[in-house]
């Protein structure tokens, strides 16, 4: 889908570095800008996360232009709320675009019921350690164009939006207490599905459907059962199968990479060396 804030920035002086559309329809975009004035008033929500610079970023308020930007600062631009920005110095930032339907869907996943109407609170130049940790570790730490990373990006986006609903919404919600993990049957079903589909992009939505749970509950219950979140388990299974194929077959590393869901032999080699301390070639020679 097309997001108005994204299109507005493309018509200004902002430079787009990369973007990705997640399977849910949520989009991520990495930008830089300077010496620009922008007005935003969109039919969707925008979460802006400053990564570098931003010290000379100003927002127009009732008393004039307000400054408070800098690395790791958070801005929330809710739908149908007009805001004016004056970017006087260099700024790099990540945008997450989502609709009200996305928020409602996540609310339903959290509480297993349709929430009352709620809206996000306009926020400017806010420091939030949890948001910083999420986007720096996940959104900036992974290659957006690699289909193998769709699961981790969608998981991080869900966590970010869940945090927004909890802390930057006009409605206060109480999270349910989940004390147990997946049932043995559901866990076996999901793990079998993962092993049978390692070559394909595995998303949180697909895995949650196999367990007949909402994405939010599935992620929490899977982590309780396996002591790791779904994206870490999937990556570990990809590496485990790759080890077997490297040691016991004569397939090329490119073939093995595609069979295990890696985008290329170089991506496989990078992950493999982090895991084992050896390159795939070294590992094969040792076996």
Question: Would you kindly provide a written description of the structure presented here, covering whatever features stand out?
Answer:
- This protein is α+β, with helices and mostly antiparallel strands and 287 residues long.
- 44% of the residues lie in helices and 21% in strands.
- Helix 2 crosses helix 4 (150-167) and helix 6 crosses helix 7 (215-226).
- It has eleven helices and ten strands.
- Strands 1-2-9-4-7-10 form a six-stranded antiparallel sheet, sandwiched between helices.
- It is globular.
- It has helices at residues 4-10, 100-111, 129-139, 150-167, 184-196, 204-210, 215-226, 230-248, 253-259, 265-276, 280-286, and strands at residues 15-21, 27-33, 36-40, 45-53, 57-61, 64-67, 73-77, 83-87, 91-98, 123-127.
- It has two domains: 4-167, Jelly Rolls (Sandwich); 177-287, Orthogonal Bundle (Arc Repressor Mutant, subunit A), CATH 1.10.10.
For this entry, give a set of tags.
287 residues, 44% helix, Jelly Rolls, 2 domains, 6-stranded antiparallel sheet, alpha+beta, 11 helices, Arc Repressor Mutant, subunit A
């Amino acid at each position: 889908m097309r997001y108005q804030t994204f299109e507005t920035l493309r018509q200004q002086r902002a430079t787009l570095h990369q973007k990705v559309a997640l399977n849910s329809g949520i989009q991520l975009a990495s930008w830089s800008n300077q010496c620009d004035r922008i007005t935003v008033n969109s039919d969707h929500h925008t979460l802006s996360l400053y990564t570098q610079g931003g010290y000379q970023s100003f927002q127009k308020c009732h008393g004039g232009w307000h400054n408070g930007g800098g690395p790791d600062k958070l801005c929330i631009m809710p739908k149908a709320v007009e805001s004016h920005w004056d970017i006087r110095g260099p700024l790099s930032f990540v945008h997450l675009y989502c609709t009200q339907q996305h928020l409602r869907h996540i609310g339903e996943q959290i509480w297993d019921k349709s929430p009352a109407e709620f809206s996000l609170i306009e926020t400017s130049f806010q420091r939030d350690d949890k948001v910083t940790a999420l986007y720096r570790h996940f959104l900036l730490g992974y290659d957006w164009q690699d289909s193998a990373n769709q699961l981790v990006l969608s998981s991080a986006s869900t966590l970010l939006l869940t945090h927004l609903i909890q802390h930057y919404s006009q409605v206060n919600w109480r999270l349910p207490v989940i004390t147990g993990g997946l049932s043995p049957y559901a866990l076996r079903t999901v793990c079998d599905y993962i092993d049978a589909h390692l070559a394909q992009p595995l998303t949180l939505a697909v895995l949650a459907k196999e367990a007949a749970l909402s994405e939010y509950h599935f992620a929490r219950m899977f982590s309780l059962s396996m002591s790791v979140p779904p994206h870490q388990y999937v990556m570990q299974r990809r590496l485990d199968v790759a080890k077997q194929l490297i040691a016991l077959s004569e397939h090329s590393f490119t073939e093995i990479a595609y069979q295990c869901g890696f985008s290329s032999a170089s991506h496989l080699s990078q992950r493999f060396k982090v895991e084992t301390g050896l390159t795939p070639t070294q590992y094969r020679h040792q076996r």
